[in-house]
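task queued by scheduler; priority normal; single chain, no ligands, no partner chains; default sampling; output format set to structure tokens
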Amino acid sequence: MNTTVQKAIETKLSEALSPALLKVENESHMHSVPPNSETHFKVTIVSENFDSLRLIQRHRMVNKALEEELAGPVHALALHTFTHKEWTDKHGSVPESPNCLGGTNL
């Protein structure tokens, strides 16, 4: 079975954190990588598991769940981790990712 990196990220985070909201975006096209790459991702996740945790602790939880991907195909991972209250207070939005400023097109 050939599973995409994005699908693997979605599956692992769903299993590890039981999120109320999970959005995994492949942003590789915004960087200097070959077409159809799966190397740069933005993850937005809302989970009760983040209640009372500091931001660094939340990121560590995500990184632990994605150890295999971070050791292999994933070059960059932008994390936006929220409790339910934080997500509601932000009106359900995260900042747009900037375009890549370095490298060359391959």
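post-processing summary
- The domain at 5-89 is CATH 3.30.300.90 (GMP Synthetase; Chain A, domain 3).
- The chain has one domain: 5-89.
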